[in-house]
Amino acid sequence: MRTRSHRYSREDGEYTNSTHYDPQNNSLDIGFQRLKIFNCKIYPDMSSIKFLFVHQNNITNLPDASLLPNLTELNCSNNNLKNIPFYRKLITLNISFNKVTELNHYHNSDLKYLDCSFNPNIALNIYLPYCKHLYINDTKLTNIKLSRFRKLKFLDCSNNNLHDIDPSNSLLELNIQNNEMTELPLFPILNVLMIDDNFLTSLVTYPYLKILNASRNKLIHIDSQPQLTKITASHNLVSKIGLMPKLEIIELDNNNITNFEIFGVSKHVCLQFNPITNLGVHEQAFQNIEELQVDYKMYEKIYAKCYDSIKSINIFACENKIDEKIKKLEGVFSARMLKFIKKMFLKTEFQNRGNMFGQITVRICDEYFKNDDETTMREKCIMTLKNISKLYHKIIVVSLIFNY
Asked: Taking the model in full, what pTM does it have?
């Protein structure tokens, strides 16, 4: 059964029929209609509704709980709600992108899934003994007590102001990106950890961890992770890494790694912009590896070793590295000149780099050395050409393709 939404029309003046009522599943969907008022009178008997979807509207109030005695799932995200009635049988609740500040009615309730993300200043001081999925990201959260969610499996508390978090024996996945964490407790069965953009200096061993995202921290040391298959920990200070024999995907660019061993199971490896002096390659590595990314300096060292296994080579400028290097030249060249250099670095193919060096050198000499005598200008141009070449080779990434 479909009922007509009479709130908003199409551009041609015709009303859009987007409301859907399914009597077999006892579900009602009135999402994406920009409704301002939930008028129960125009919909079927609400007492039988188990699944209600009112997301992406502009409503400020929901129906009284007495009108929805059998409701088990509610999605009221993206509205202007400040309060949520207590629906006694509710198991799944999504109130994201609203203005709710508390859910005290749901203390000790049967909720198993709760998404209250993007509700600024919400206070979640309730006990949810059956909750397995909790999403409380982007709420300005300063603390969370995991002891209140003893069966929690999946937690997203990213983009908040957390300094610490309780340990949990049940947690499988944790997203705590973009907070103010300096250390983490042990989560004995954790499988997935996303902790980018924090202040960690080290990571202990998580015996069942399979996926780790920890870029842009202050990591110096990462302990052994026996089950880890994917690590992304770019832009840290990592100099020492424990044993990780099952790694398939490795992204450790922009660190302080001097020694690294590529195991036979590795498929994608990114190690550019590390001061690596010893790169060990397991004898089976070239049979399984699909891509290896290194900087130009490392490429020159390992090219002969892996020449026979390379299928293709892709060389490109790293924009983040360009920005980092160019920032150091802000007092030397004008903003316009630096913009020109960046543009040339990014658009020029590696095999045409010689012509590009010449164009940049000519532009610099014309702007800065045109009043010098011929001999001095020639010397400065030669030095500029060398420096441009040196700068370029410090910002390029070499992607070696093997068994792809």
From this structure: 0.90
